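Reagents: none. Just compute today. Serine hydrolase.
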Amino acid sequence: MGFGVNVDPGEVGLDARRLRRIDTHFSRYVDDGRLAGWQVMVSRRGKVAHLTSHGLADKEAGVPVRTDTLWRIYSMTKPLTSVAAMMLWEEGAFELSDPVSRWLPEFSEPRVYTGGPAAKPVTVPATEPIRVWHLLTHTAGLTYGFHRVHVTDELYRLAEAEMGSADLATRVRGWAKLPLAFQPGAEWNYSVATDVLGRFVEAVSGQSLDTFFSERILGPLGMTDTAFWCPEAQRHRLAALYTRAPGAPGTARIDAIGQEVMRPPVWLSGGGGLVSTTRDYTRFTWMLLRGGELDGVRLLSPRTVRYMTQNHLPGKADLATFGRPLFAETRFDGVGFGLGFAVVDNPVAYRTPTSVGEYHWGGMASTAFWVDPTEQLTVVLMTQLLPSSAYPLRSQLRQLVYQALVD
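Predicted 3D structure written out:
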């Protein structure tokens, strides 16, 4: 795939003048200092109809956003890990109902938090095992330390402080010792489940996660710039990482976090470790849109992709009713969850004129993507601002993309 607009928007049902509203609107974020720079790609029917870059990838160095800029995609790594697991599932390596402990014995006897402080939590045995399905749907009872609303979150923060430079296998063993926030399958909670799933992929495949990604997903799809770290020879392409400046409308550079991807990682995070480009991630979305195949390379069957992108929550519940009211990379109303993706079940409740069955996710540096099979539409947004909840970039981008659809 060449990188750039390769179709007149009108030929694929998009209004070029209306698409330019995306540029006008988001340029203001750069002009008033809220974002350093950004890039948006809109594709329909496998053709690039709109590609815009604006602002700087590195404000301090004066480097503009370019078509080959590298971005930390953080949790947009999760869909790749989910695809990796389902590729193994298609080979008959496991069933979705299988207990994870069959491959990761540290999860043989999970316990569930019922009360008490972090120093002395009260737990009970889990009533059923953590199953592969639970990891893919974030219903295992695991959590993230950064949620800061539950005692188990605090336990994760304490454990993280002790783990230091531990590798993925050691981290997963550490998480397995911690009590679950709820019984497996009882709720949805954004969590380290996909990192555990990455370790599961390693155990099932016999390969490290980076090797599996490289040989089975990234290489075959031609995602040549996607990896778990940015080598020195490519560092000039890496966007700087920013956060909202305290007490000011601008941004503050955060190299302490941003520079972590400039060296090989101490652990391979299937939940948030990749660096990528707009071109590469668009190829990943095209593979999904085409039912698991791109340019003659098939990773998954169409039926598997359809299955992954249905709402798997019990009773087709949305995250507002089945999930905990915590931070996640999506809004909760009208949105369910499949095997690695948020899935729109009710566009009215979602407050966006998207389609039923549109699926998506984002990353903590405000990156985002979505795939709309009904409209044959894929969209990728890249920028580098923490946290992703700083501004309503995702909802505004959806609004501006869908108003440009005119067929």
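The domain at 83-205 is CATH 3.40.710.10 (Beta-lactamase).
Action item: order primers for follow-up constructs.
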